[in-house]
Amino acid sequence: MITAHHHHPELIRLVMGLAYAACGIAAFRCPRYFAGMAGTFTRWGEMSPAQRERLDGVVAAREQAEGISSNYGRYLGMSAFALALLEAVPAVPFAMPYALFCLGIAAVTLLAYLQFHRATEQRVAPLVPRSPFIALPPLLIACVAASFVVALLFAVDPQNRAGALVVATSTLVLGFVAWRIANAPALLLGLDPQYEYALDERLRVGRARNLASLATAPVFVFAAIAEPGLPELFGTLGTVAMAILIAAFLVALAASILPLFGRLRIA
Amino acid sequence: MNASYLVVDPELETPPYQQVAAQIRAAIERGELPPEAPLPTVRQLAGDLGLAPNTVARAYGELQSEGWLIGDRRRGTRVAGQVPVNARGRLHSLREATEKFVTSLRYRGFTSDEIAVELARAGAVGQEI
Questions:
Q1: Of chain B's two ends, which shows fewer C-beta atoms within 10 Å, N or C?
Q2: Residue of B nearest to A124 (CA)
Q3: If you measure CA to CA, which chain B residue comes closest to A193?
Q4: Which residues, other chains included, contact A114 with Cβ-Cβ below 8 Å and sequence gap of 6+?
C-alpha cells in the first residue's frame, strides 16, 4: 500500500485539503479539546469525587496560567484553514502544509510553557529526581532520528528534494521541541503541589511524546505519496528504509497514545 | 511516601540558598526524605525553582559539609545514611547543660582551672570506655 505510487496528485491534495478544513472546523467547535488538558486523562471514572475535584481545580489553574484558552484552539483552527488553501497551490510541495501544521502545534505547546513561566512568581519544586527519558524513551528518540534520516534519503532525488528538506527540517524541529519539553522545569503553582506535580508529569509525558509522534508523521505522509518512492530509488535498501519508517511511525504513535490510559500517579 | 516540595519566596530577607537548605534539612528531620533518598540534580532543582544553579549548589554544599547530604558523580546527591538529626539543637543543648554544670561547680568554690582539668579527664575516660 505504502509503496504503490500510482496515484493522482490532485486527488491527494484535495483529500489533504479537506482533512485540514475538517481539522479547522473541529478546532473551532471544540477548542479546549485541541489545546486543553482534560483530554490527557482517560480514567476519570476510577477517581473518587474528592480526587476529581482536586484534579479539576489544578487543571483549571494550570490552563489559566498557561493561557491555554479557546484562543489557542481557534489559532490552530485558522492555521488549518490556511493550510487547506495552501494545499490547493500546485507549486507548494504537498507535504509542506502538513509539516507546517505539526510545527504550529509545537509552537503552541512552547508558547504555553513560556506563558506559564511568565505567569508564576513563586515557584515550587518537588524534591524528586526526574529523567527526561521517562517522557522521551531512547526508543522514541531513535524513531525520530530514523524518520529524519529517511527524509534525507528522499532528498537524493531532485524531484522530491524540496519536499524532503521541508519534512526533514520539520522532524528535526519537532524532535528538538519534544526534547526541550521532556527537560522542562516542573511548573507548580503551589496551591495543591501533590496534584499539580502529578498533572505536570502527565503533561510532560503526553506533550513530549505527542510532539515526537508528530515528528515522525510528516515523513510518513511524505513517503506514502512521494514519487519516485524509496524502493525505486534505492532498491532493497529503500524497502528496508520504508519498513523502518513505518515501524518508527507506529511505535511513536503507540508511545504517544498509551500513557493516556495509565493511572494518574499521585506522589 | 509523599514527595516533599520546596518553595522559595523572593520577598523574604533570608537568602534563597538558605531557604533551600533549611527546607531540605527540615524534610530530612521529618523523615520525608529517608536515608539514601536521591535528590534532584542541581540543574533540575534550579530550573524548577527559577534560581541560578550556583544558588542550589551552595545549598547542597552547605548541607554536605554539615553531614546531611552526600554526593558523588556516579550516584548524584542523596541523603546521608546517618544524618545529624537535629544537629544544631543537640549542640545547643550540650552547651546549655555544660554551662549550667560549670556554673554550679563555681558556686561550690571550684576554680576554672580545676574544672577544666577534671572535665578533660572525664572526657578522656569517656573515650576509653
A1: C
A2: B7
A3: B5
A4: none
Domain B16-79 fold is: Arc Repressor Mutant, subunit A (1.10.10)
How many whole angstroms separate alpha carbon A267 and alpha carbon A55?
14
**ipTM, interface predicted TM-score of the complex:** 0.75
> pLDDT tens string for chain A (267 positions)?
444 445 566 777 788 888 888 888 887 777 666 655 655 665 556 778 888 888 888 888 888 777 766 667 777 788 888 888 888 887 777 777 777 777 777 777 777 777 777 776 668 899 999 999 999 999 999 999 999 999 999 888 888 888 888 889 889 988 998 999 899 888 888 888 989 998 888 888 988 998 899 899 888 888 887 777 888 888 888 899 999 999 999 999 999 888 877 777 776
B41 to A122: CB separation less than 8 angstroms, yes or no: no
Biggest alpha carbon distance in chain B? 61
How is residue A83 written as a grid cell?
493550510
* Cell numbers describing residue B101: 554544670
pTM: 0.76
* Cα–Cα dist A131/B44, whole Å: 10
Between CA B79 and CA B62 the distance in angstroms is: 13
